[in-house]
Amino acid sequence: MFPVVKVTATGLDPAFMYTILLEFVQIDNHRWKYVNGEWVPGGKAEAPPSNPIYVHPESPNFGAHWMKEPISFAKVKLTNKTNGSGQVSTINFSKTTIV
């Protein structure tokens, strides 16, 4: 995906474990394509996946870990296909996952 999603976490308890999630939510009925440096509509959208949640590969981890540097989702790629388990890829910070 371009650009890479990076977020900075602050205010977490350094000793608590957190799971970091990324969720894509379909907001319109278009498929989009990147043409000449901009996103343009490229047809009708497919039905959204049933579980569009991407769990950061370093999750769960301590708050100290998440706060030491920006959290990068560099390996997330936007695609029209799922990975077989339904995982495609809003960021939620919590001691227990809050959606």
UniProtKB/TrEMBL annotation:
Q: Chief location of this protein? A: nucleus
Q: Which PROSITE patterns match?
A: TBOX_2, TBOX_3
Give the protein's recorded name.
Uncharacterized protein
Per the record's keyword annotation, is Cytoplasm included, yes or no? no
Single GO term (MF): RNA polymerase II cis-regulatory region sequence-specific DNA binding
Q: Which UniProt keywords apply?
A: DNA-binding, Nucleus, Transcription, Transcription regulation
**Cellular component GO terms held in the UniProt record:** chromatin; nucleus
Q: Give compartment(s).
A: Nucleus
Coiled-coil segments on the chain, per record: none
